[in-house]
Design a protein that fits this description.
The protein has about 100 residues and is an alpha+beta fold. The protein is built from 3 helices and 6 strands; from the N terminus they run E-E-E-E-H-E-H-H-E. About 15% of the residues are buried.
């Protein structure tokens, strides 16, 4: 995501393609080829990372997480959007209507 976009429940997102990713002890570890930076994710971040392997709407991510974890819809949406915005700012995520990365 090259420009700042406001995400909401209807926004569809996916991983960017130029990453080296794997899992270590159930947690995602990423390396941005373009930036030469490493990133680590906790188990819930890793679950979201798995979900966005293919394009998925924020609402679908939240629905899935609410089925798996004990979380209110409001808390889930807030936390998911915060996490996705952090990924977007680190250029690890793209909004589907954006230019493919």
């Amino acid at each position: 995501m090259n420009r700042k976009q406001k995400m909401d429940r209807s926004t569809a997102v996916a991983r960017v393609s130029r990453l080296v990713a794997g899992e270590l002890d159930g947690e995602a570890v990423l390396m941005s080829v373009d930036q030469g930076r490493y990133y680590g994710m906790d188990p819930i971040g890793t679950r979201i990372w798995r979900l966005i392997e293919a394009p998925l709407a924020v609402s679908d991510i939240c629905d899935q997480l609410q089925n798996e974890y004990k979380v209110t819809p409001e808390e889930c949406e807030r936390d998911v959007l915060t996490f996705l915005n952090e990924l977007a700012e680190a250029n690890l995520l793209r909004v589907i209507d954006d230019t493919p990365a």
